[in-house]
Write a structure and sequence with these properties.
271 residues, 2 helices, 14-stranded parallel beta sheet, single chain, mainly beta, seven-stranded parallel beta sheet
């Protein structure tokens, strides 16, 4: 069965050039969907298989959108920019399916930034090897302006690092996060709190649901780091149910950031 998309990406190159309507980059497809408004879908030509290395900065999404990578597409920030940012919305709905985001670099959310007021679903998504100088090495979910919802299903958040809180995921004030299916947080590191997951605020909720959900081998690597696996503060809510597991995490490890980096990327800039 062939899936029909509103926009089909035909190249792994990163550019925005309206002069060649026969070739669609991922950046051009996102820009077109943003301009058109409404709920749109983006897929990839069946001949494409590989990595899109961003050369023009992060990909900004402003309107409801679904992107399906078909299990063969990786988008890399090349440790020079965040990979993707979903801007603050008003009940907008977004989905990322069967795609990898990796090697991002940002202040908040090295791999993915989710602005307030959005409903985002990640299915069969990997976010890997990304860094944040503030919070949320892999993913940052903001509550600024309005609360956001994030659902991760059959997804992996791996080898991300932050100098602040939430190596894998930072859930800001009012964020509602659910992790289910066969999902893993592995080898994520935070200097301050929450090697894998950090939740902040009385209206913030994180649910780990199912016996195939695992949070393991996280590190709060600073000398006074807390919550190697998960740190929830200021009355935020954590629910671990139906056999989900949190194991093998370490706090106050007193190691350097260099030691905390576990991505396959060979070198990183000084942060």
């Amino acid at each position: 069965m062939t899936t029909t998309f509103d926009y089909t990406v035909t190249t792994l190159d990163d550019f925005s050039d309206d002069s060649n309507s026969a070739t669609w980059s991922l950046r051009e497809a996102i820009e077109a969907a943003n301009a058109n408004g409404g709920a749109e879908t983006i897929g990839f030509d069946a001949a494409l298989n590989g990595t899109i290395t961003l050369t023009e900065g992060q990909l900004d999404i402003t309107e409801s959108l679904s992107i399906d990578g078909g299990g063969v597409i990786t988008v890399s920030g090349d440790v020079s920019s965040r990979v993707m940012r979903i801007l603050t919305g008003s009940d907008d709905v977004y989905a990322l399916n069967d795609i990898t985001l990796r090697d991002g670099l940002g202040a908040n959310g090295g791999g993915l930034y989710v602005g307030g007021g959005n409903d985002v679903t990640l299915t069969d998504v990997t976010i890997r090897g990304s860094l944040a100088s503030s919070d949320g090495g892999g993913i940052y979910v903001s509550g600024t302006g309005a609360s956001s919802k994030l659902t991760l299903t059959d997804s992996s958040i791996l080898e991300n690092v932050t100098q602040g809180r939430g190596g894998g995921l930072f859930a800001g004030l009012g964020a509602d996060v659910t992790v289910n299916g066969t999902s893993a947080f592995d080898y994520n590191s935070a200097q301050v709190q929450g090697g894998s997951i950090f939740g902040m605020g009385a209206t913030t909720s994180v649910v780990l649901d199912g016996n195939s959900v695992i949070v393991e081998d996280g590190r709060a690597y600073g000398a006074t780091g807390a919550g190697g696996g998960i740190a929830m503060i200021s009355g935020s809510s954590l629910e671990i149910r139906n056999g989900a597991s949190v194991q093998g995490n370490t706090a106050a490890a007193s190691i350097s950031m260099t030691q905390a980096l576990r991505s396959r990327k060979a070198t990183y800039p000084t942060m």
